[in-house]
Amino acid sequence: MPLVKTESAKLAAESDIVRARQMVRQWATEMGFSLVDQTKIVTAASELARNTIIYGKGGVMTLEWLTEGNRRGLRLIFEDQGPGIGDIELALKDGYSTGNGLGLGLSGARRLSNEFQIESKPGEGTRVVIARWK
Amino acid sequence: MLPQIIARHEGELLAQWLQEQKANSIHQDSGQEAEARQISSEFLRNLKNSLSSSSDVQGAEFALVRELLADLSRSRGVQGYSPAQTATYIFSFKKPLFAAIKKELGNNAEGLASETWNASELIDKLGLFTMEVHQKTREEVISRQQQEMMELSTPVVKLWSGILALPLIGTLDSERTQVVMESLLQKIVQTGSDIAIIDITGVPTVDTLVAQHLLKTITAARLMGAECIISGIRPQIAQTIVHLGVDLGGVTTKASLADAFAMAIQKRGFTVSKIKSAGLPVAM
Amino acid sequence: MERIPILRMGEFLLVTIQVDMHDQLALTLQDDLTSQINATGARGVLIDISSLEVVDSFIGRMLANMSAMSRVLDAQTVVVGMQPAVAITLVELGMSLEGIRTALNVDKGMDLLRSCLPPRLGEDEEDAAG
C21-55: per-residue pLDDT in tens? Predict the structure, then answer.
């Protein structure tokens, strides 16, 4: 899948969450996503950036502009060298029923994206990839 | 061999090709003919250059040729030419090209056959390419028109101060439902209406996806501070909803748009009363 | 340190969130709000999020917390002005924001607050309407 451009940003302190949101917003706008789609991916990025910083002890977000035929896609990769997730299935089960937002990060990001992929092992860090296509 | 042949006979090829175009009435008027002269000469030049490094029409070396043909195809398509007409423009190049090949290789039967075949294949591929571009352009136009139709076909209407109605008509697909719902939420904000009646009298069937979109929209409206009432649920749809296990979770439903309107009026604190009539109007 | 301003409107407090809030700012706001409710005896809080283009689960939790804390301090909260794109995203995200009252704008928010506030002991209807 041809890559038009890519950029990375460090996610270390919680102030980086806002910066990550702004970067994703800028890219999504440039790529011509609708307002609703922009909001979805920016919100998903916010959740994952927060996870990376708080649970992953800091990491990197990489943005990729992809093209496939007529479509364009915005792919985001969140990587950290943190403690990793033991039970991914459980982590993806959300605190949905409580409705107060706890534990919605991963599952929420998945619902908000067209593509979602996660790799994680205890002691080996975590890598989450999401994408939205236009 | 081909690139050299073209290089040696470039002037003749161009002149003969333009003759062919005229003979086949490929262009509609003299303005187009003049334009064609320029395009044809540019095409020849680029073709000669590309052929000297490759014979793969889809490859990077042919990018300029493809771009030229794509532009031509698009602009002709917009002007109303058929795909066949644009392709014939390319195919009409065969005659002069074969003639040139014959001139060069007339005495070499095998060479003549082989180069003629190569040339034929090449021109065919280029002609087909123009047809593909043509088609794609048409698809883009249709898709844009579809989008516009979608937006026009489901207007949100204001029934009263603070009360909106969205009469949905026809089958709903996932994409259309999303577009319509987003537009409803926008209107709610724009008009400051806190009650929206979604009437599905005109919707023959509802599947799980559509039901889910409806529910999500209603939840979103609630989050924004507006309330939705669904009206016009046919018995069939009611059955489908139950079978699908869709949980309407506290969404008010009314049999008819009229009932829903009456309820909305009441919620907004209005009442409708009859004015005592003073008698029939008298014509003077 | 930057803070989000809290304005007094009669017996209500109005919080207008206009910036993309980072976590610390959100926590400071919660503190400020509870202090203000205490100091002013406000009975209603309006949180205007019409400028917020993104509400993630953290901010959603923060809104829920502010609402709950205010209730404990005997004040009702109404969140107003949520943008459609934000509402659609929150639903997809799975946040129902249960227990939080919402209204389309500040005016309607105030109407809602007035309608759900019982008059305090010793007040009559006219006083309560402020």
Answer: 888 898 899 999 999 999 999 999 999 999 999 99
SS (H, E, C) chain A: CCEEEEEEEEECCCHHHHHHHHHHHHHHHHCCCCHHHHHHHHHHHHHHHHHHHHCCCCEEEEEEEEEECCEEEEEEEEEECCCCCCCHHHHHCCCHHHCCCCCCHHHHHHHCCCEEEEEECCCCCEEEEEEEEC
Among B residues 59-98, those touching chain C with beta carbons less than 8 Å apart: none
Helix B109-153 crosses helix B2-23 at what angle (to 10 degrees)? 60
**Residue of B253 and A95 predicted with greater confidence:** B253
pLDDT score, position B245: 81
* pLDDT at residue C1, as a whole number: 62
CB contact under 8 A, B225 and C104: yes
CB contact under 8 A, A105 and C57: yes
Give the rounded percent of residues in chain B with a pLDDT score beyond 90: 25
CA C1 to chain B, closest CA, distance in angstroms equals 31
The model's confidence at residue C130, banded by pLDDT at 50, 70 and 90, is very low
Q: Which long-range contacts (CB under 8 A, 24 or more apart) does B101-107 make?
A: B101/B5, B103/B9, B104/B1, B104/B5, B104/B8, B105/B1
Mutate to test the interface with C, among A24, A29, A36, A102 (most CBs of C within 10 A): A36
> pLDDT (tens digit, 9 = 90+) per residue, B220-271?
999 999 999 999 988 888 888 888 887 777 789 998 999 999 999 999 988 8
Q: Report CA-CA distances (Å) from C52 to A28, B106, C112.
A: 17, 77, 21
Cβ neighbours of residue C73 closer than 8 Å, sequence gap 6 or more? C34, C37, C38
Yes or no, beta carbons of B220 and C90 under 8 Å apart:
yes
**How many residue pairs bridge chain A and chain C with CB atoms within 8 Å of each other?**
81
pLDDT band for position C121 (50/70/90)? low
The kind and range of the H/E element at B98 are: helix B94-105
